[in-house]
C-alpha cells in the first residue's frame, strides 16, 4: 500500500514541479509571433489593402 501511495505522491509532486514551466511555455508562445505567422499576417494585410483599393478605385 505504501508503495502505491508513494507513486501517486511522486506523480503529484512531479506535476506541480513542471506546471510553472508549462505555463511559461504557453504564455511565451502566445506572446511571440513566429516568422511564419508574421508572413501570413502580412499577406492577409496586403490582400485586404488590395481589395480595398479595388473597391475604391476600381480595377
Structure description:
This protein is mainly alpha-helical and 59 residues long. The chain has two helices and no strands. It has helices at 2-31, 35-57. The radius of gyration is 25 Å and the shape is rod-shaped. The termini are far apart. The relative contact order is 0.06. Residues 1-5 have low confidence and may be disordered.
Kindly list the characteristics that best describe this protein.
disordered N terminus; 2 helices; about 90% helix; mainly alpha; about 60 residues; single chain; about 0% strand
Our estimate of the beta-strand percent is under 5%
Through-space gap between termini: 78 Å
Shape: rod-shaped
> Largest sheet, if any?
none
Category by helix and strand content: mainly alpha
Poorly predicted runs of 5 or more residues: 1-5
Q: Mean of residue pLDDT? A: 81
Give a count of the beta strands, DSSP E runs of length 2 or more.
0
Q: Count of helices?
A: 2
Helix amount, in percent?
Answer: over 70%
Instruction: Determine Rg (CA atoms, Å).
Output: 25 Å
H/E element string?
Answer: HH
Please give a quick description of this structure:
Helices cover 90% and strands 0% of the residues.
Blueprint of the fold:
Layout: H1 2-31, H2 35-57
Amino acid at each position: 500500500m505504501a508503495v502505491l501511495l508513494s507513486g501517486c505522491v511522486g506523480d503529484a509532486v512531479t506535476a506541480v514541479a513542471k506546471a510553472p514551466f508549462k505555463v511559461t511555455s504557453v504564455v511565451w508562445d502566445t506572446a511571440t509571433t513566429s516568422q511564419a505567422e508574421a508572413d501570413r499576417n502580412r499577406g492577409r494585410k496586403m490582400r485586404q489593402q488590395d481589395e480595398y483599393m479595388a473597391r475604391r478605385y476600381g480595377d
